[in-house]
Amino acid sequence: MSKYIVNIWQSVSTLLIGMGITIRHLIRIRKGNVTLQYPKEKWPQPQRKIGFDPKVYNIIRSKLHVDIDDCIGCLKCVRACPVDCITIETLKVPKGTDIGMTSNNTTKRLLVKRFDIDMSECLYCNLCVYPCPEECIYMTGGPNSEKKTIDYEFSKYDRSELLFTFAKITEKEIAELTAEPNELPHADEPGGEA
Amino acid sequence: MTVDALIRWFQSWTASGGNITFLLILSVILLALPVFLIMAVNALVAVYAERKLSAFMQDRVGPMGQGPGFHAGKWGIFQTVADAIKLLLKEDIIPEAADRKLFILAPYVMFLGAFIALAAVPFNQKLLVADMNIGIFYIVAVGSLSVLGILLAGWASNNKWSLYGAMRSAAQIVSYEIPAALSIIAVILLTGTLSMQGIVQSQAGVIWGFLPNWAVFNNPFTFLAFFIYFISSVAEVNRTPFDIPEAESELVAGFHTEYSGLRWAFFFLSEYANMLVVSAVAVVVFLGGWQSPIAGVMTSAWWGLFWFLGKVTIVILIMIWFRWTFPRLRVDQLMNVCWKVLLPIALLNIFGTGLWSLFIG
Questions:
Q1: Contact call for A22 and B57, based on CB within 8 A
Q2: Share of chain B above pLDDT 90, in %
Q3: pTM of the model
């Protein structure tokens, strides 16, 4: 009989302890909670000094970026890509037509008509970055991060929005640059898809 | 405002007195609408309160999206409204192997139990649908209708989880009704009436010099009876820690596993309405109903409504507090608590209350 009463007493008192804990959490409502109302509130961006030198090691790979003015259309990144997420189409220009220089002082010989990167397929391996002779394709947030500020939030509402197009050249410019006075315009050369 | 009073009011408009059958139907419908409104509003507010309070108890923020300024609400105060609209728009699925008629019938049976129980709840001195002289007995009796609905739902779903949940629920509700009813009897010994208004009116005045003369303060036995009733009522409405009929981690969702859309909403509505009913009974029987906590102060009808709703809110909040504190009981523990602890104490309470009112009170 005494055990019966002790049992009841123990269960009641321990239940009260539990209720005390929950009411304490209820009273200091937003003190200890860590929920972030994400699109409206954001964590501060992390400091990049986490033991690696960002010039040497690519800590953050958030999105592929191309400096399209430096691209010579060599398709090395296309061949390096293990998942074929880069699509480039190039056009030959007639001899003598000047289409500019890259920032590494290489003469551009091909028009980059199309440069698409499908970030929904990209696996962030960074393999396309190394073969590029002009260092124009890179992961933002990586060694080239001083070229472009870091942005972590490349998430989109629709999968099709993850297809990033970099080529800026218009149809009119293509027509002007490929046209030769004594010849018919070149037929479009198919892009070298690896 | 009871049905009788409403019929008399209608009759005073016409010289001949009017067709009594028509007036009865009209009055019943007119009074049923506010009762349904109370149920719906109760569910909306209680679900919101439950989600917010549970979030705060677990150091979360709870629903924050829906509210003034769509999708940018400050506190998500329209979350349950959005939920209700979603439930209305959802597809209504009836399993192929289900017993179609019973499956459709079950939510309404459960809803009916809660709905007609609210008819005898006195919201203040005048506001109740039917002032029966057996009010409390009526509520205890029709409160058991919900177990019928749960059993129907579990059987008709043709699903193992549902049937398990329904069987557990039947065992649980039938068991816990006994200590609940016995603890109410302890108070009825004091008041000498089964009428809800009579029970509330008998709790007027002051006891022990300063406390309001509520049954819970009347003597040590009724004090204990209040807690027994409260625990049993939590078990009766299938809320945690007594939620084995719908135990998520064991039975998917228990008896309403196969229900979706509006039918599921009806289960939800009646669950929260049942909560309202048992809280109202606890308030009427033990906490003085619409009586003011300070005797003789603020006793008008509007204040009566305020006190009643305030007390009911506090009791519902304590139920929510229970739910987010305690883990679920095992089936055998559940039966132990009922038959070995609550029932003997409830019987002792009746005995003690009888002796108290004979020799002391």
A1: yes
A2: 2
A3: 0.74
